[in-house]
Task: structure prediction
Amino acid sequence: MKTRKLGKTGPDISEIGLGCMSLPDDALQAERIVSAALDAGINYFDTADLYMKGRNEELLGKALGSRRADIVLATKVGNRWTDGKDGWEWDPSPAHIRKSVRDSLKRLGTDYIDVYQLHGGTADDDLEAVIDVFEELKREGLIRHYGISSIRPNVFLPFLKNSSAVSNMMQYSLLDRRPEEWLGDISRAGASVVARGPLAKGLLTAESEQRAEQMDGYLSFTSGELRELSAQFRLLPGNLHGAALGFVLENKTVASAITGASSEEQLKETLRAYDNLPDSDTVRAYAALTTEQQYEKHRE
Result:
């Protein structure tokens, strides 16, 4: 497993990271998946306080156990829920962040978080206050680095340009190429992209045709377009799963492709695909079948 530096000042992280939102709500099953990831050289694990209302952090913390020091642990903050009530509210206030980081530390069973991320954001947020509290948490040693998880240029650009953030987690894949317009800006701000959704809900795996049949479209693609694209992908050399990972990793602004796994076999499929990444010419052939896109909202 190769690694890449996260931003200009962050840690070296594995090119494949484990997105922990998909971990099953069973401690033994979660531990098996996490252990398999660790044994394969994956060192970047991403969760959030919102997932399962904190339960996901607890599962990950227990699964890591004594191997916590071997990994780069990332979690997120900004969504507040109330026990007994459905849904959650957006709250990026310094007071909420200060409380939430300590709650996350307790659930994760650790005394520091490697990468603490703002979990979203709007143009109306006081981003300066968020950055200030993240810097305070760094000085206190509760977090080592911070970043943001956002697809809104009018949020992630000012956040990155006015802070020492090392990352932006954003959806990026052969079927969602909207980040490409902004990769240069993100890199110049001293940050890396942590790509979520590189397999587009399974549409970019061996199950592509089946998933296309089951789904009522994906982003700008209709169901019919997905089926046609799946058929075109099958005519190309290599395998779609590997090409999807290779496409995301082709740009060096991307530090890691974050893939989820609800079973050991799903994780092993991704690892096999990573071990057999196609060459650049093949990746470009796959990319030629999809279109460059732009964010239509949240640009200013």
